[in-house]
Amino acid sequence: MSEKYTTLSEIIHERKSVRKFDPTHKIPKDEIEEMLLEATEAPSSSNLQPWRFMVIQDNETRKRLKEFSFNQQQLETASAIIAVIADTEMYHNIDEIYESNFEAGNMDKANMENQISNAKALYPKAPFEARLNIAAFDSGLISMQLMLIAKAKGYDTVPMGGFDKQQFAKEFNLEERYVPLVLIGLGKAAAPAYGSTRLPLDKIVTFV
């Protein structure tokens, strides 16, 4: 963690959605990779990890992205834009994932074979919408984890759902199985983020 934040609670409370980034600040590729790698410790359904990332740093590409993303200024000023993309055919990785877990000593062979069999019986037959819902939920988990990791390292973020997802898929020639979900601006804040309040617990929590 950074010197400024010493506890997870501090990081959670300090993380705000920044919309004005320092356009001169560049984050090295290896630092971005380090943050993404750490973020992949997030949980996912059957550990199928249905998230994919596109790290967009090229200026011309970001200008084109801005055109179908409501001209949000942070698309050009953030150090990088990380597109979080759901893989709705996550089942193609079943063998690789469970065999890797077996080789790492996380499960025995019988458990591996049982997990593979169960996953193959479930995921390929599930409707597209069901698989998209699973992938979107899991991608939300890793997105939040990534933003907290970035804050712990002294960087700022903003999640952006306001963009033409069909145009994004066309622009980057995504196969139909891949669905863009959110863009995360990553960089150094050039101005403080706005504070925000939250609903009281008695409006959102019920104990039964």
UniProtKB/TrEMBL annotation:
* UniProt keyword Cytoplasm, yes or no: no
Q: What InterPro entries does this protein's entry cite?
A: Nitroreductase, Nitroreductase-like
Q: Is Oxidoreductase given among the entry's keywords?
A: yes
Cited SUPFAM superfamilies: FMN-dependent nitroreductase-like
Domain Nitroreductase: from-to ranges: 12-188
* Keywords assigned: Oxidoreductase
Q: Belongs to which family? A: Belongs to the nitroreductase family.
State the name under which the record lists this protein.
Nitroreductase family protein
Provenance organism: Sporosarcina quadrami
